[in-house]
Every structure is written in structure tokens, then in C-alpha cells.
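Lab channel / #folding
Pinned by the channel admin:
"Please post every new chain as: sequence first, then the C-alpha cells as a reply. Keep commentary short and put observations after the output so the thread stays searchable."

First post following the new format, from NK:
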Amino acid sequence: MSERFLELIDISKIYPGVTALDRVSFSVSRGEVIGLVGENGAGKSTLMRVLGGVTEPSGGTIRIDGVARASLTVAEAIKAGIAFVHQELNLFDNLDVAGNIFIGREPLHAGPLKLIDRKRLRAQVRPLLERLAVDFEADRLVAELSLAQRQLVEIMKALSLDARLVIMDEPTSSLTLTETDRLLQVIDGLKAQGVSVIFITHRLNEVKRCADRAVVLRDGRVVGALAREAIAPATLIRLMIGRDLKSLYIPPASPPGDRVLDIVEVRTATYPDRAVSLSVRRGEILGLAGLVGSGRTELARAVFGIDPLRGGSIRLEGEPIRIAEPSAAIERGIYLVPEDRKRSGLLLDFSIAENISLPDLASYARGMLVQTAAEVQNARRQRERLNIRTPDVMTAVGTLSGGNQQKVVLAKWLSMRPRLLIFDEPTRGIDVGAKQDIYQLLRRLADAGVAILMISSDMEEVIGVSDRIAVMHEGAISGFLERNQFSEHNVLELAVGHTV
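Reply from TO:
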């Protein structure tokens, strides 16, 4: 790394009654990777909007290449080489890779028609493809790309603007482990080429893997800046929330009871030749671990009736049941909190109250009309019960943070007295403080007698929250772990198909 490229000095942003940023200062050197972490509401997004020229700061100085200014416009930020890769990707599925990268800046043929010069366009894209060593061509439709490949297109779009600083907002939140490794390798490559990166993530192990320094925000202030050798998830959490990691997890109040769910030799479409057998008991949190692609989500979808069984049987409290569709599971008190809450768990344009009542509309209806007052009353009870942070239950769910959206998904099912709750990646993309709320809720539900099957790729979460762990490998259970056997080593051994 060489000289400083960017310095933020005492940046403040004050809204009426709220100090979003309070004299934030840090610097970025050329070819340096900064991990920027903090809970939702800590000020990360506001700070990045200031840096991108979207928000004008209330005070402070931005210094780029030694030149100081009070604020930036969007055009000035782009000219300075600052580019963003947002969590919600901004690509057009019906255009190819080249068209997306240079949209609005395509080279044109001479003449009155101003047609796009496809040959020159491909020539402009080729160095970017080679620079990131991607495995797709310039004429590939974006609709045909995986999520990880789309992330790379966004990065190439940033580099096509001669970006010297690329800001990545939660770039791995929806990626598999393999795709995440590939993206982190790309970040290493950008660093080697002298491009700086600000990496915003809730996955703290990734900060340790790729960042040269970590900057921690809390309540709009910088509360810590750690050199590479000092970065550790436990240290980051302590700075983010002011307490240790262990305080997030709550031990069970009592031993589990009788078996609620028995999965017997179940086969799914993904692994039709492999069978899964496991049981979940009343008051138990059974963690389901395994590598991405091991068949965990497919098992959850089959139990909930989204996908058909290819063999085996399911018993609920000892009684054989047939679940051909989700409505059959819901009738029996089996509920799924899906991996992708935005696409599969919520209607983002609907209000909190409408989302909560949706699976059980008959309970809120008189004749053919839904009683809004009853919806609102129940939603307010759930808001207090789950600490959903919103002043109004008629607020659209799409405006909430990830953690509060997850609580709305839970509120929807808790209104209906669950017997078995299946959580698929319950805390993906939410901050540490919201995670603690979810963990406390899981434990309260278990203590109240609900059986919980929790699928998670977060090793610390699986070990910290579960009462027992089942590990899947290539469509089958490779082993079970009791509490006295919990360790990352044992989970990983079973996840790759070895014995413990």
C-alpha cells in the first residue's frame, strides 16, 4: 500500500432530532481493503451516501488526493473514481454483459442512425473480463448468470468508470461459500492492482479474511479501528454492541420433551438416491448444518410441502401425515421461515399488519370482508412481543431493516400457535443486535414447547444456539452431535462426509 487516497475528517450529518454521523474520521490508502462494520442504524449507509455525493454532510472535510472539500456531488464522486456495488444489484436481465457494463456509454457507429458499434463495445469489455478472470463472455445475457457472476458484472461496471475506490455493500449476503471465496479472491486481485475497497458486511469472518483494517461504527461514531492482526469476530462484536459474543446465546431452561417431528427415510428431488432420517423434540432447537448444496433447504421445502417427497414418510407427534402442499403443513402447525424472506416470506409493498394476517385471513374476516381493526390490533401485539421497530404497523414491510423484516415473518406464524418451526438461515443479512433478538425469541419459543429445526451456514450460530446438531452431506445425515461434542472441527468433519 502507498499514500492515502481518501481521508474523511470529522464528518457529521445531523437530521432534525437525530445525529446520524458524529465526527467520523478514517482514511483509505491506495490498494487497501477496509472492512466497515456496525449494526443497522450505526451510520454506515449515511457515511457511504456522503462519500458518493448523494447526501451533503453537516460538517467535516473530505480530502481526495490531498485536495480538501466540504462535500461531493455525485458527478464529482464518479470523477474522483468512487464507485458502488450495491446489495440490490442494478442490472438489466434482457441485456448482455457488455450492454450492462457500458449502458448509456456505448460506442456508436458514425452516421445519422447512431447505432451501437458492437465490435468496439466487445473490445472495450474484453480487458475487464480478463482483469477479473471471469468464466462468461461479453455477449452472455445477464438473465443467464448466477448471482455471483452478476456481482462480477457490477464490479466490472465500476472498473469501467476508472474506479479507484469500490464500495461493496453486503456483496456476499446471498452467495454460496464457493461463490464467496471467488469474490474474496477478486477483492485480493483488485487490491494487487492498486484499487481500494470498502467492504461492508455483517459476516465478520469475511472481514478477518480480506480486510487490511476494520473500522467499526456505533451510533454514528467510530468506536474502533483495528489493524489486520487485531481483527477477530469476537473483538468486532464487542465494539459493535458493547458486550461479548457469548451474551448473544441463551442456554435451554429445561430438557426437551417428546418427539414432535419424525422424518423417516425421506428422499428429495435433488438427492433421490439418498435418504434422510431425523427427529425434533418438543422444546428443542435442532441445528441442521452442512455445506451449501448438501440438501438442507430441499429437505425443509419437502417437509413444508413446497416440493414433493420422492420417498419416505413424515410423522407429527407419532401420527403419519401426508403434506402435498404448504396449506396442509400450515393446517398442522408446521411453519417455514424461508431463506429468502424478501422473495418467499413477505409481500414488500404490503403493510406489516397485512403481512402478519395473510396466512390466516379467515380469522380476521366477517363474511367476505377482512376486518382491518382486528389486523391492526394483532399486529400491534406482535410488534410489542417481538420488538419490531416501527411506529406504525401500517408501514410497508419493504421499508424495514432486514432484522425487522425477519421479525415480521416470525410474527406471521406466531399468531397461529406453531407446533414445529423450520428456520432456514434465520439471521442472514441482519446485524448483531437483531441477531440477539432472534436468538432470544428462538429460545423463548423452545422453552414454551415449540419444536424448532434451524438450518444455518453460520458456524458460530449453529454451535451457540442449538441444543443438538444434525449435519448433512450430499443429501443424507452424516452424523449427530450432542452439546458436549460441539466444535467447529466436528461439524466440518461431518459436513465433508467424515466421521467424528
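NK: Residues 4-245 form a domain with the Rossmann fold fold (CATH 3.40.50.300).
TO: also worth noting, The radius of gyration is 25 Å.
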